[in-house]
Amino acid sequence: MDITQTFYDSLASQYDKLFLDWQSAVQEQAVILDRLFADNRYDKSAKILDCACGIGTQAIGLAMLGYDMTASDISEGELAEAKVRAAKNNAQLSIVNANFCALSDVFADRFDIVICMDNALPHMLTKPDLEAAVKSIVNQIADGGMFVASIRDYDALLADKPPYSPPYIHKTNEGQRVSFQTWVWSGENYKLTQYIIDDEETLQVSKFDCEYRATRREELTELLLANGCSEVAWKFPEETGFYQPIVIAKK
Questions:
Q1: Cβ(147)–Cβ(248) under 8 Å?
Q2: Which CATH number is 107's domain given?
Q3: What's the chain look like in SS3?
Q4: Fewer C-beta within 10 Å: the chain N or C terminus?
Q5: Share above pLDDT 70 across residues of the chain, in percent, rounded to a whole number
Q6: Same structural domain for residues 196 and 231?
């Protein structure tokens, strides 16, 4: 099991603590993506794959809006959590284990839209790894279909290479929850430690380690165009309302 699987398997039961209100985020992000799909002339009949679904933050919300949703991930821990949360929300979707670098090993069909949100692609720690992921994902998109992904604004972050992310402080009924990340850089790669501090009736501190490669928008754009996409556009938080830059690639 690699560091990414270990990270998400360990984090799965606490992933929702990264949100002030995970349930509200599910609904809000589904609305954002639904509007983006509509702007690109897709309706609820679109067949969608979320190829890095995590605990279902986007997939469950889109299924609740009526989309034909399939969700996949490499983390069994997160998939188990996603299934529980889908059932609680009466969301109808297929949830399966798949590596987005080898989607054709699991899926025979192609999809109208493939999404890969929440900075999943930068888990690819080299350019060849990222290209393998792009090839796999684009191959699973039907002709005329669309790829939608979000990544951190690494173009800005690489200028300063900050050693940590600003903390999120969430008030709870019993106290407060603080979450933040520390980043140790080595070139374009950085080791990330996610801390979650529950300061409630008793103090609990959890930490989870992972690694990323800072992916510039130009690099991802070039890889998408070189591997089957005909046009690529970027949209930013002030335009979409989503918390990260979003890339939209048409096949």
A1: yes
A2: 3.40.50.150
A3: CCHHHHHHHHHHHHHHHHCCCHHHHHHHHHHHHHHHHHHCCCCCCCEEEECCCCCCCCHHHHHHCCCEEEEEECCHHHHHHHHHHHHHCCCCCEEEECCCCCHHHCCCCCEEEEEECCCCHHHCCCHHHHHHHHHHHHHCEEEEEEEEEECCCHHHHHHHCCCECCCEEEECCCCEEEEEEEEEEECCEEEEEEEEEEECCCEEEEEEEEEEECCCHHHHHHHHHHCCCCEEEEECHHHHCCCCCEEEEEC
A4: N
A5: 100
A6: no
Count of domains for the chain: 2
122 and 195 in a single domain? The answer is no
Structural domain for 166, as ranges: 156-211
**Residue pLDDT, tens place only, 29-53:** 999 999 999 999 999 999 999 999 9
pTM of this prediction exceeds 0.90? yes
Q: Are residue 56 and residue 28 in the same domain, yes or no?
A: yes
- Please check whether residues 188 and 94 belong to one and the same domain: no
Do 103 and 39 belong together in one domain? yes
Does 128 lie in the same domain as 54? yes
Residue 16 has pLDDT above 80, yes or no: yes
